[in-house]
Amino acid sequence: MHTILHNGDDKYSRLFVNTFGAGNTVIDWYKDEDAREKFRVAYPDVEPSAFPSVLIHEPAYSAPLHDRETGEETGRVNIDARHVLLPMPESMVEVGEYEAAVTLRAAENPPV
Fold it and tell me: Please, are residues 4 and 20 in contact by the beta-carbon 8 Å criterion?
């Protein structure tokens, strides 16, 4: 189950929700003020830039640090788990592919 942020006045957003909304939480961002405020309280660092947007959990991982002069890897930095919005996906398949990619990234680059 996913959370889909939606703009009921946007044709593409309506089509996405009509096609993929079943079984997911759908928040009409401009019309459902209570749900929007609950979302903002739960995810204060997440704000939509386009509609529809699907909330994704990105697991923690480590990323390489590089020397600015040589480009050589000098260590790793931990990136905390976070929630992000995937803007304007074409389908829930795209959402699943993104989730698989960030899950694989975390598995291959665990925090150090």
Answer: yes
Check residue 39 and give its pLDDT.
98
Instruction: Give CB contacts under 8 A, 24+ apart, made by 70-77.
Output: 76/109, 76/112
- Report the DSSP pairing between strands 25-28 and 3-6: parallel
Cβ pair 106, 83 in contact under 8 A: no
- The per-residue pLDDT for range 67-110, each reduced to its tens digit, is 999 999 999 999 999 999 999 999 999 999 999 999 999 999 99
For 37-59, b/e burial (b = at least 16 CB within 10 A) is: eebeeeeeebebeebbbbbbebb
Please say whether the beta carbons of 67 and 24 come within 8 A: no
Backbone φ/ψ region at 46: left (φ over 0), alpha (ψ -120 to 50), beta? beta
Tell me if 58 sits within 8 A of 84, measured CB to CB.
yes
What are the tokens at 65? 């640090």
